[in-house]
Design a protein that fits this description.
The complex is a heterodimer. By secondary structure, chain A is mainly β. Chain A has one domain: Beta Barrel (OB fold (Dihydrolipoamide Acetyltransferase, E2P)), CATH 2.40.50. Chain A has 2 helices and 8 strands. Chain A is globular, with a radius of gyration of 16 Å. In chain A, 37% of the residues are buried. By secondary structure, chain B is an alpha/beta fold. Chain B has 2 domains: 135 residues, Thiolase/Chalcone synthase (Peroxisomal Thiolase, Chain A, domain 1, 3-Layer(aba) Sandwich), CATH 3.40.47; 222 residues, Peroxisomal Thiolase, Chain A, domain 1, CATH 3.40.47.10. In chain B, the strands form 2 sheets. Chain B has a 9-stranded mixed β-sheet with strand order 3-2-4-7-1-8-11-10-9, sandwiched between helices. Chain B has a two-stranded antiparallel ribbon with strand order 5-6. In chain B, helix 6 packs across helix 9. Classes of the chains: A mainly beta, B alpha/beta. At the A-B interface, strand 4, strand 5 and strand 6 of A face helix 4, helix 5 and strand 5 of B. Bound molecules: zinc ion. The site of zinc ion has 8 residues of chain A, from loops.
């Protein structure tokens, strides 16, 4: 199977992926206005405070904001995985995350369903653990 | 606004073996010049977009060199499907500022014959966030499917309402001799086509095509020397995000703000519009935009389309050339075809698909995942 395109961590995203490899979901929070932020950026996208947002551990809980089951993959790397279900999850803290759905919920996804974020085992040279979601226990 | 569209041109569309990106640009440009009654040397501005088959850092310079012109002003613009409308708006700003007299807006690509379908799908998927979307296996259809699912949930839209958009476009395309897909389809056939990313099926998705389009935008006083100018009455843009994970909402985008700006400038309302050419990369794109722009209430575009509202003689004839769903989608030129068709309608040159007495047209483009929007209101001279 062709290699799927794993992310290459950069200055803005490295703390997220380091957390993910340890099974911890991390998001940014602005030290000036308190806004929670994802995807990570060098500054706060809400108040533009110059101080970099700090990283914090997120609850890992959220609800499905939308979902789709993909039958036509983007590339050969994903061909053996179709069909797979993707979900946009709105975290309790506010930001949105895109994840694979796993478990029973992947077969019958539902907007508004409560989920928890988990991580796949780390893979590749950068030890990337991709996030997925399952029904909240 | 003190600008006019004075020339339009397009190449054949579909699968064009032996075509090239620059060849398609040049052919469309020549046709637009002939249509306007202008010579290449009279162009003092050029706006291009982007290419998958001949990507370049400076596509406008590549075009000017290839076409054999040396304009005072040229640049390439990249805002996905909004590029066609945004370039017309930019060209209008150039002529209104007195920087140019005649600006050529030209776009084209041989996306079908120059790339395999797999490579085209993979290239498009690169609009996904490189770290937080693409590694999960998203495609552009999957990202729009996420919007569709959320929108259907919020407004009670059903899959047959999405299908009605595809049927409406195909019905129009059947009247256009140059359209890529002309065989009529039914709602049932759309619903039965294979699933790409649920709830979107094959016939909910735009085509992949070869083709090129060109539009010449001229200063109002310069337009007098041309054949059949159409007035640009209003234009608007709005950008809210690039990646869907960072969109402020999954059901409300920049369509409304861009449209309001264009309507406000033109001094007209959605109900005044005779014909609309609206970006239709997917059926959800068209349905959502029809409702956001104000042509239909939320949740009403689908039932209205099932009853023929988007057809000739309906409340709002829409995508009279067949749109990206049935006419063609060669990339940036796809959005420019909507402009070309609107001009043709206002000139009364749309033949079998002519909207009777069309005097006001609305054109809308969107790029990314409903990320960047550009809107135009055009009026008969
Ligand atoms: Zn802040």
């Amino acid at each position: 199977m062709a290699q799927t395109p794993l992310p290459r961590p950069n200055a803005e995203t490295r703390p997220f992926w380091e957390g993910a490899a340890r099974g911890v979901l991390r998001i940014q929070r602005c030290t000036a206005c308190g806004a929670a932020q994802f995807p990570p950026r060098a500054l706060c996208g809400r108040c533009h405070a110059p101080a970099p947002p700090r990283w914090e551990e997120a609850s890992g809980r959220g609800v499905i904001a939308s979902h789709t089951t993909v039958h036509r993959p983007p590339s050969a790397a994903f061909r053996e995985e179709v069909p797979y279900t993707l979900a946009l999850v709105t975290l309790q803290e506010g930001p949105r995350l895109l994840v694979r759905l796993r478990g029973d919920l992947a077969r019958a996804p539902r907007i508004g369903a409560p989920v928890v974020i988990r991580f796949d085992p780390p893979a590749g040279p950068d030890a990337i653990a991709l996030p997925h979601a399952e029904a909240a226990p | 606004m003190r600008a006019a569209i004075t020339g339009i041109g397009e190449t054949a569309v579909g699968e064009l073996p032996g075509s090239s990106c620059m060849g398609l640009h040049s052919e469309a440009a020549l046709r637009a010049l002939r249509d306007a009654g202008l010579s290449p040397g009279e162009l003092d501005g050029v706006l291009c977009a982007y290419s998958f088959t001949e990507p370049h850092l400076m596509l406008a310079s590549v075009f000017c060199e290839s076409f054999g012109i040396q304009p005072a002003w040229s640049a390439a613009l990249q805002c996905g499907g909004a590029t066609g409308c945004a370039a017309v708006m930019q060209a209008a700003a150039l002529v209104e500022a007195g920087l140019c007299r005649h600006v050529l807006v030209v776009m084209g690509d041989n996306r079908l014959s120059g790339l395999s379908r797999d490579r085209a799908v993979a290239a498009l998927a690169e609009v996904g966030h490189p770290q937080f979307e693409r590694p999960l296996g998203v495609t552009v259809p999957a990202l729009y499917a996420l919007v569709a699912q959320a929108y259907m949930h919020e407004y009670g839209v059903r899959e047959e309402h999405l299908a009605a958009m595809a049927v409406a476009c195909r019905t129009h395309a059947a009247r256009h001799p140059g359209a890529q897909m002309r065989a009529p389809i039914t709602v049932e056939e759309v619903l039965r086509s294979r699933v790409i990313a649920a709830p979107l099926k094959l016939l909910d998705c735009c085509l992949i095509s070869d083709g090129g389009a060109a539009v010449i935008v001229s200063a109002a006083d310069a337009a007098r020397d041309t054949r059949r100018p159409v007035r640009l009455l209003g234009a608007g843009q709005k950008t809210t995000h690039e990646h869907l994970i960072a969109a402020p909402s999954l059901t409300a985008f920049g369509c409304q703000a861009a449209a309001e700006q264009a309507f406000g400038q033109a001094g007209v309302r959605p109900a005044d519009i005779d014909v609309a050419e609206i970006y239709d990369s997917f059926t959800i794109t068209l349905l959502l935009e029809l409702e956001a722009i104000g042509f239909f209430e939320k949740g009403e575009a689908g039932p209205a389309a099932l009853a023929g509202a988007l057809d000739l003689g309906g409340r709002l004839p829409c995508n009279t050339h067949g749109g990206l769903l049935s006419y063609a989608h060669p990339g940036a030129a796809g959005g420019l075809f909507h402009v070309v068709e609107a001009v043709r309608q206002l000139r009364g040159e749309a033949e079998a698909r002519q909207v009777k007495d069309a005097a006001l047209a609305y054109v809308h483009g969107d790029g990314g995942i409903l990320s960047a929007h550009a809107a135009l209101v055009l009026g008969r001279a």
